[in-house]
Amino acid sequence: MNRVMARPVLYILFLLPALSLYIIFMGIPIVESFYYAFFQWDGVTESTFVGLDNFKELFADEVFYKSFANNLYFIAFSTLITLPFVIVISLLLSKIKKMMDFYRTGVFLPTILSTAVVGVIWLFIYHPEVGLLNNLFRSVGLDAFAQNWLSDPKWAMLGVLVANAWQWNGFYIVLILTAILNVPKEINESAEIDGANGWQKLWYITLPLIRPILVVVMLLSVAGSMKALDIVIVMTNGNPFQTTEVMATYMFTKAFREYQYGYGSAVAVVIFLITLIFTWIIQLLAKKGEDYEY
Amino acid sequence: MNTNPVVNQKQKSETGAFPLTNPIAWLTRKNALPHLALIAYLLVTLYPLVWLAISSFKTQREITVDPWGLPSALHWENYAEAWKAAKVSTYFFNSFYISVLTCLVILAVGSLAAFAISRMRFPRASTAVYQLFLLGLVVPGGVLLIPLYRLIQQMHLIDNHLSLILINATFALPVTIFILVAFMKSIPRELEEAAIIDGLGAAGLFFKIILPVTMPALVTVFILNFINTWNEFIMAMLMLSKESLRTLPVGMSVFKDAFQTNYSLLAAAIMFSVVPVTIVYFFLQRKIIEGVTAGSVKG
Q: What does the pLDDT look like over B249-274, one tens digit per residue?
């Protein structure tokens, strides 16, 4: 009986399409990214091996540091400001019984829109003359606040971050809400019998029990912040004065606008490595805190 | 009956009978505060879309002069113009058929691989292959833009939708295999053994037994990948230069540059990319939410 399911030819045949796609369009490109990073190459003429020169140049490149700092700003905003906010909304949602589906459906909607469309929507919202935001300030008499948000170095990055949060908050809320609702009722009930108040239940029961999903959300938002590209390209393309440049847009500009494929690849390699390091650190911290449950 | 009036009043306010004597207790009892906060948040989230929808029916002048008001008349001509100027029909069709084909490739390729990994008797090879696919979950797609662009150039697939189908399908494989393997592993062995006794081979087992049983997971995978492909932007921008081949997200980003100052047209064009998705979403919301979050819950 086992023989039917143990025929090597069939096994290989079944795996072959997936593996070939995977190797051609992911495996080899990963290796090539690392390889190109050691070359100077404009995509047309012969490439020349330059060793670590691209990386040396990179670590002396002010714009690169600027873009890295913006990625850190991205991470800080999504973990320190967005995440606590999203947890609070999820906790509120878990408290109510009526209309939960209604709220969940509503807050999740932006998540299914294309990032490019989200970018265009927010360009409209931030528009200096007809934008929703400036109209809002003007109609409550705060005309002085109305300004050209995305052209102002002070505000542009924050503008992009808010648009990004608008798109993804609902996604994280649904993840966290599901985890909260999965906390067994008996645990909360027995805590109540022991005299725990609402805050104690939150602090000693709910939060520790949804820890695994909070770690997942952290990982997703840090990885998302590191590879942020679409939203920036559509909204500001790194402007003004590279105040919204992130590593991925810098890579994109170097490779596809300035045709420095080698240098662009070096940026890509750095993005890849930093993302790995960050996710590794988060997982390490998560494991260290308490026993990991899955 | 009750000799102690203080206790009596306290009990009543706790049951919510006297909101005026203890409004705070009443508020918490009815969950009014969470509801207020949630409605406020929902309004802030959705109002921009409502405002755009209203703007899309206004004239240029109405948008500038009366930003909060309703349109004097429903200016459908904005939609007609945007449909033509933004070439929405072409882009819409491109996005649609690319997404459908990509999903079919993913389902075919992914389910075959998931079947081999989860059901066939090569435990060691399967573990290795499975781990290999899971590694793909941590690869940020944008990092591979340069080698992928080169590869597509060499394959002469620039300005060919096949490039997007192959690349999108590949990047969807890790999460697809993750979901399908988890599902297929849960199918009881007895089902498989009965089918084999009935004379089915591995291929017959796959098509006649496992695939139909896996249908719920296949639907989840289809929805998740359809939305991702439909929304994909950067690859489509890079791999397609011909206007007639563009997808909707790329079309939108180009349109916003070309029609920066024509606000009513821009609003109508945005509606073209938001409304169809929203309608489908309201009909299939449970399935869609489940699909989009599927890969993350156990990640």
A: 999 888 888 777 788 888 898 898 88
**A109·B46 Cβ contact <8 A:** yes
What are B203-241's pLDDT values in tens digits? 889 999 999 999 999 998 998 899 889 999 999 999 998
How far, in Å, CA of A85 to CA of B152, rounded? 42
State the CATH class of domain B82-297.
Answer: mainly alpha
What are the chain B neighbours of A117 within 8 Å (beta carbons)? 231, 248-249, 252, 270, 273-274
Structure-token pair, residue B186: 């849960």
Closest residue in B to A135 (Cα) is B67
Q: Tell me if B48 and A1 make a contact (CB, 8 A cut-off).
A: no
Beta bridge partners of A39: A49
Number of neighbouring beta carbons within 10 Å of residue A70: 25
> What are phi and psi for residue A165, nearest 5 degrees?
-65, -40
Does B13 score more than 50 pLDDT? no
Q: Which residues of A touch B169 (CB under 8 A)?
A: 21
Subunit contact A5:B148, Cβ cutoff 8 A: no
Q: Which helix (H) or strand (E) holds A48?
A: strand A48-49
User: In chain A, which residues have their Cβ closer than 8 Å to the Cβ of B263?
Assistant: 124, 127, 130
Amino acid making up residue B113: A
- List the domain range (segments joined by +) for residue A103: 54-289
Could you tell me the two tokens for B277? 């998705």
Which amino acid makes up residue A226?
Answer: M
| Residue B174: pLDDT over 90 | yes
* Domain extent listing, chain B: 5-80, 82-297
Q: Cβ distance A96 to B38 under 8 Å?
A: yes
| Contact between residue B182 and residue B114 where contact means Cβ atoms under 8 Å apart | no
* A3 belongs to a structural domain: no
- Which pTM was predicted? 0.86
Structure tokens at B240: 């397609």
Residue B5: the pLDDT is 44
- Give the length of chain B: 299
